[in-house]
Design goal:
4-stranded mixed beta sheet; about 50% helix; globular; two-stranded parallel ribbon; Phenylalanine Hydroxylase; 12 helices; alpha/beta; 6 strands; single chain; binds fe (ii) ion
Length: about 250
């Protein structure tokens, strides 16, 4: 179902849409029960997603509002960077409301609702994660005039929100939305073919990424409060880079 009118037209979801949601939900949860960060599993329970029901944006926003003050906003597709970061700074998460077709179940180029909602939204119930997301948005607002700073913030977003890993005692767990919504990414993230680095802002800012392949590099954190607390260092790093006119490529 394509949704271009900026609201979730729930009555337009087809039997196939429900089948797509259920198939992806079962496949991911089957894997994630063992491998997701505990924070994610707690959050998906708290937000009450399940295999039977494509999430209602309204009900989901009520739960988010109660937990952390976040809300969902329906967007047709990827939104421009400035609009995206402005929304985050206001605790608004732009999300698509359409689902990939059954034929595209394994791969889709543009993020659909399974990625945006199953992948991203549960952790917005977590206070530290929610504060970090807002913080990235606020930082981006300050740096919107500077493309290099925005691109570096993009790296931080990519290696945490999209493809972040969590070290839990001696086990590596998953939390990045790009991993949660793709079994291939999940297997790749925990497999031996990819490199894992302990969260290090400087290294992260010097690491390039590609959006069209399975990732070869991941960064691990120990808690979402570690991410939130790294925001002042990120601000300082951006100031230093811009002041020294250091070109990071
Ligand atoms: Fe995403």
């Amino acid at each position: 179902m394509n949704n271009n009118n900026l609201q979730q037209r729930y009555e337009l979801y087809t039997t196939d849409d429900f089948k797509v949601w259920q198939t992806l939900y079962d496949r991911q949860m089957n894997y994630l029960q063992m491998h997701a960060a505990k924070n994610y599993l707690d959050a998906i329970e708290a937000i009450a997603f399940n295999r039977h029901v494509i999430p209602h944006f309204g009900d989901t926003t009520v739960r988010l509002q109660q937990a952390t003050g976040w809300q969902l906003k329906v967007v047709p597709n990827l939104v421009p960077q400035d609009e995206f970061f402005t929304a985050l700074s206001q605790r608004i998460f732009p999300a698509t409301a359409w689902l990939r077709s059954y034929e595209q179940i394994d791969y889709i180029e543009e993020p659909d609702m399974f990625h945006d909602v199953f992948g991203h939204v549960p952790l917005l119930m977590n206070a530290d994660y929610a504060a970090f997301m807002e913080g990235i948005g606020k930082l981006a607002m300050q740096w919107m005039h500077n493309p290099q700073a925005i691109s570096l913030l993009g790296r931080m977003y990519w290696f945490t929100i999209e493809f972040g890993l969590m070290q839990e005692q001696d086990e590596l767990k998953l939390y990045g939305a790009g991993i949660m919504s793709s079994l291939a990414e999940a297997n790749n993230a925990l497999g031996t073919a990819s490199a894992k680095h302990v969260f290090d802002l400087r290294q992260m800012l010097h690491t390039n990424y590609r959006t069209d392949i399975l990732q070869d590099t991941y960064f691990t954190i120990t808690s979402f409060s570690q991410l939130y607390q790294s925001l002042p260092a990120m601000d300082a790093a951006l100031k230093a880079i811009v002041k020294d006119e250091v070109l990071i490529t």
